[in-house]
């Protein structure tokens, strides 16, 4: 058996394991995880794998088999920027539900591994706009997608870069609030994956701490209404340009009191009665009804 065939089998096994770890059944996503080669997005090996206590350990050599695990891989390890955990992304992408022919905007594209998964899901009739704030990572992503006509990489701040109306917006950095840009540009019936984190969020070292520090919500737009549903806990690199102190404090209090699983609505104002509100900041509120 040649090496590429072998790696294809390894990827197929990885895809099954990752979906199981994410508690997700999704044949299209499983096929995408089985098809996209992670090694093509992470630069030359050996690769730095994130282990406990924020330490990186290099893979023994540059065999791509080491990348088909549940692990985070450093893409700018000196700044703790990682290619995220496959099972977390599987869960979030499943909820973003990218369909064939859709336009997906990926905020915090990094070097593009999950952008490529999204591109696989929307197919050649769809497209993905990947926005990356860091200049070096954006350049690496541009090079990685040079021959992909359905992926456009933009260097910039995804909270303010204008983009065409999106069927799904997949945010991969921790915010303290939803950006107006995302809510405005989300298509009717569109899905926004929104990680909200308090200042404790990045680098949480235990699961208890994680649950108190970050939460990912699925926001779905119906006209001017936005439903909201908690889909995961998270610890994730902070989003540049989308953190304000008032929301940050409000989030820390909300995480401390609990109740995020009962959230059902996102409002673009803060005048929701206290008893219905889980968290509110300037001009926004996540509420129970
Ligand atoms: C946790 S890393 C994930 C990278 C990538 N999704 C992956 O898993 O390989 C978060 C990324 O978001 C980027 N980022 C942070 N704030 C951003 C913003 N306002 N606009 C675009 N990208 C941003 C960071 O530079 C970083 O590359």
Brief overview:
This protein is of the alpha/beta class and 289 residues long. The chain has eight helices and 14 strands. The strands form three sheets. A ten-stranded mixed β-sheet has the order 7-6-5-8-9-10-11-12-14-13. A two-stranded antiparallel ribbon has the order 1-2. The protein has a two-stranded antiparallel ribbon with strand order 3-4.
Structure description:
With 289 residues, this protein is α/β, with parallel strands linked by helices. It is 29% helix and 27% strand. A 10-stranded mixed β-sheet has the order 7-6-5-8-9-10-11-12-14-13. The protein has a two-stranded antiparallel sheet with strand order 1-2. α1 packs antiparallel against α2, α1 crosses α3 and α2 packs across α4. The protein is globular, with a radius of gyration of 18 Å. The site of S-adenosylmethionine has 28 residues, from β4, α4 and β6.
The first-to-last residue Cα distance is 57 Å
Main sheet: strand order: 7-6-5-8-9-10-11-12-14-13
Multimer state: single chain
Query: Low-confidence segments, ≥5 residues, pLDDT <50?
Result: none
Radius of gyration: 18 Å
The count of β-strands is: 14
Q: What does the overall shape look like?
A: globular
Percentage of residues in helical conformation? 25-40%
Main sheet record: 10 strands, mixed
Descriptors:
289 residues; two-stranded antiparallel sheet; globular; binds S-adenosylmethionine
Topology record:
Layout: H1 3-21, H2 27-35, E1 48-51, E2 55-58, E3 73-76, E4 81-83, H3 86-96, E5 103-107, H4 113-122, E6 127-132, H5 135-144, E7 151-155, E8 166-171, H6 180-185, E9 186-197, H7 207-211, E10 214-222, E11 225-233, H8 245-257, E12 265-267, E13 277-281, E14 284-287
Parallel strand pairs: 5-6, 5-8, 6-7, 8-9
Antiparallel strand pairs: 1-2, 3-4, 9-10, 10-11, 11-12, 12-14, 13-14
Helix pairs in contact: 1-2, 1-3, 2-4
The structure holds S-adenosylmethionine.
S-adenosylmethionine binds at residues 75, 81-84, 107-111, 113-114, 131-134, 137, 157-159, 172-173, 236-237, 239-242.
């Amino acid at each position: 058996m040649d090496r590429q065939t072998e790696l294809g089998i390894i990827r197929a096994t990885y895809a099954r394991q990752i979906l199981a770890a994410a508690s997700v059944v999704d044949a299209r996503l499983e096929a995408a995880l089985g098809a996209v080669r992670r090694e093509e997005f992470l630069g030359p090996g050996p690769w730095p794998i994130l282990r406990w206590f924020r330490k990186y350990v290099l893979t023994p050599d540059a065999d791509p088999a080491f990348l088909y695990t549940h692990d985070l891989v450093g893409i700018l390890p000196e700044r703790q920027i990682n290619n995220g955990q496959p099972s977390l992304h599987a869960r979030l992408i499943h909820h973003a539900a990218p369909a064939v022919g859709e336009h997906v905007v990926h905020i915090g594209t990094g070097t593009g591994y999950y952008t490529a998964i999204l591109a696989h899901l929307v197919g050649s009739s769809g497209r993905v706009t990947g926005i990356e704030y860091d200049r070096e990572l954006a350049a690496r992503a541009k090079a990685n997608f040079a021959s992909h006509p359905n992926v456009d990489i933009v260097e910039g701040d995804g909270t303010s870069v204008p983009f065409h109306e999106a069927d799904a917006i997949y945010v991969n950095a921790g915010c303290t609030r939803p950006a107006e840009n995302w809510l405005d540009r989300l298509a009717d019936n569109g899905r926004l994956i929104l990680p909200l984190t308090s200042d404790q969020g990045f680098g949480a070292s235990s699961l208890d701490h994680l649950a108190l520090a970050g939460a990912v919500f699925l926001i779905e737009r119906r006209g001017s209404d936005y439903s909201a549903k908690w889909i995961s806990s998270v610890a994730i690199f902070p989003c540049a340009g989308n953190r304000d102190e008032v929301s940050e404090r409000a989030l820390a209090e909300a995480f401390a009191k609990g109740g995020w699983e009962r959230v059902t609505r996102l409002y673009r104002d803060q005048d929701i009665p206290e008893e219905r509100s889980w968290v509110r900041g300037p001009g926004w509120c996540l509420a129970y009804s």
